[in-house]
Amino acid sequence: MPSSGVSEAGRPWAVGAATGVGSMPGTDLGEAMRIVAGELDAFPHLVELPAAGPGAGLIGRAVAHLADLHTEFTVSGWRFAAHAGRDERRARAGLSRDLDVLEEHMQGFAGPLKIACAGPWSLAASVELRHGDKALADAGAVRDIAAALAEGVAAVALDVRRRIPGARLVVQLDEPSLPAALAGQLRTASGFGALRAVGLSDAIEKLRLVTAAIEAAGATPIGHCCAASVPIGLFADAGLRAISLDATLLSERDDDAIGQAVERGVAFFLGLVASSEPADETKPPRVQEVAGPARRLWSRLGFSPETLARDVVVTPTCGLAGASPAWARHAYRSCVEVARVLVEEPEDTAAPAGDR
Question: Most confidently modeled of 272-281, 332-341, 345-354?
Answer without folding.
Answer: 332-341
